[in-house]
Write a structure and sequence with these properties.
- It is a single chain.
- With 241 residues, this protein is of the alpha/beta class.
- It has a single domain (5-232), classed as ComB-like (putative 2-phosphosulfolactate phosphatase, Alpha-Beta Complex), CATH 3.90.1560.10.
- Helix content is 38%, strand content 20%.
- It has helices spanning 16-19, 34-43, 55-60, 91-94, 106-112, 126-135, 153-167, 177-189, 193-200, 202-205, 208-218; strands at residues 5-10, 25-29, 48-51, 67-72, 75-76, 98-102, 117-121, 140-144, 172-173, 228-231, 234-237.
- The strands form three sheets. It has a five-stranded parallel sheet, with helices on both faces. Strands 3-6-4-5 form a four-stranded mixed sheet. Strands 10-11 form a two-stranded antiparallel sheet.
- The longest helix is centred in the middle third of the chain and has 15 residues, at 153-167.
- It is globular.
- This is Probable 2-phosphosulfolactate phosphatase.
- InterPro entries: ComB-like, ComB-like_sf.
- Its cofactor is Mg(2+).
- Belongs to the ComB family.
């Protein structure tokens, strides 16, 4: 299809090399919670956000003036200023600061996307992220952060929503079975994603008390008009979308 843009979904950073297309736009998704937290921090005034794959490198960023955020398996890391709850990143705590963040899954996806044009996407910036994607000319790879390099439900649902809405427009197409898998999950979930996720995921059902406030925040759509864009090793606000 001449000048049409291919859309694909990669369910895990571990599979990224198999889905990468030269020059594609990578849309990183970690609904619960990394991209939701990153978008919230940037909307509340963070100057830049550096996603870091490992704990030691994140802590080392303090020497360069960063505040640091980190979690493993949902829990805030000792010695860190923040965990990974988006509700922690209030304007009073994050405005005009450079933030380094390391998480179990989301920052691993950004590590896979290094050297490519990449943005952070979630429901809370859905419209803005869609506008950014639509404004470009590249093929689009929706990269789910998943869970410990495995597929998860929540990121697949959001990737499926992006794919469905893009493919409803002229100028986008797909040849990928991943799209069909995500669309089938969307159909099964209906309008109540959170109920479907908790019914379907023992992992998240077991963490509901820990994550319920963050989940409620993450399920709100279009509350921020900011798109974090990866420039070199930092996320900064995209100037146009």
């Amino acid at each position: 299809m001449k000048n049409a843009r291919h859309v694909d979904i990669c369910f895990s950073p571990a599979l990224h090399a198999n889905y990468h297309r030269e020059g594609n736009l990578v849309v990183v998704i970690d609904l619960f919670r990394a991209t939701t937290a990153i978008i919230t921090a940037m909307a509340n005034g963070a100057k830049s956000i550096k996603p870091v794959a490992d704990i030691e490198s994140a802590l080392a960023c303090r020497d360069n003036g960063f505040v640091v955020a980190g979690e493993r398996n949902g829990h805030k890391l000792a010695e860190f200023d923040f965990g990974n709850s988006p509700l922690e990143f209030t304007t009073g705590r994050i405005q005009n600061k450079d933030l380094a963040i390391t998480t179990t899954n989301g920052t691993q996806a950004f590590a896979a996307a290094q050297g490519q044009e990449a943005i952070a996407a979630a429901l809370i910036n859905y419209k803005a992220a869609m506008q950014y994607i639509q404004s470009g000319k590249q093929d689009v790879l929706l990269l789910c952060s998943g869970w410990t390099n495995k597929m998860n439900i929540e990121d697949t649902l959001l990737a499926g929503k992006f794919a469905r809405d893009l493919l409803a427009e002229a100028g986008f197409y797909s040849t990928s079975d991943s799209i069909a898998i995500a669309e089938a999950m969307l159909e099964a979930a209906g309008s109540n994603w959170l109920e479907f996720i908790l019914d379907s995921s023992p992992r998240l059902k077991g963490k509901y008390e820990l994550l319920k406030d963050d989940m409620a925040w993450a399920m709100r759509q279009d509350i921020f008009n900011v798109v974090p864009l990866l420039k070199n090793d930092r996320l900064v606000p995209a100037s146009e979308y």
